[in-house]
Design goal:
Elements lengths: L3 E3 L3 E4 L14 E4 L3 E8 L12 E7 L26 E3 L7 H11 L5 E3 L24
Parallel strand pairs: 4-7
Antiparallel strand pairs: 1-2, 2-3, 4-5, 5-6
């Protein structure tokens, strides 16, 4: 069973934790042509203790991308608007290798930013080319 995969086709998100019944929640492939940016973010302010929060990954899709099989509304607790619930997953029960994700994205989808967002007071505020509080991953 796949939890998360990024390869030449795009980003594949496995079944959402707690919804592992394949008939109800299958994996979602988002082709690179539909990816605007990949966002890494902590659980929102209503979640557990800050120290115990599991990180989340979300894929903001380009305008005009086809609808997802499920979860087309805004992802709860995602600080960046435009991330559908069906394109976001909690990183729990598996480990996200951020460096490997950055290497794959650079090789097969250059120009797709990977940003780390916070859930601070400027939620979802965007500046030119990047979300506020969301620097791109990678070397300085």
């Amino acid at each position: 069973m796949i939890a998360f995969r990024a390869d030449y086709e795009g980003v594949t998100l496995g079944a959402a934790p707690g919804k592992l019944v394949v008939r109800r929640n299958r994996r979602v492939l988002i082709p690179w042509a539909h990816v605007e940016k990949i966002i890494l973010y902590p659980a929102g302010p209503g979640a557990r203790d800050a120290a115990d929060r599991d990180p989340w990954i979300g894929v903001r899709r380009r305008e005009g991308s086809p609808v997802l099989p499920v979860g087309n509304g805004q992802a709860a607790d995602c600080p960046i608007p435009g991330v559908a619930a069906g394109a976001a997953r909690e990183v729990t029960g598996w480990r996200l290798d951020r460096e490997r994700l950055a290497a794959v994205a650079a090789a097969v989808a250059p120009g797709i930013p990977i940003v780390e967002a916070s859930t601070g007071p400027s939620l979802g505020a965007e500046g030119p080319g990047a979300a506020a509080g969301a620097p791109e991953l990678g070397p300085d």
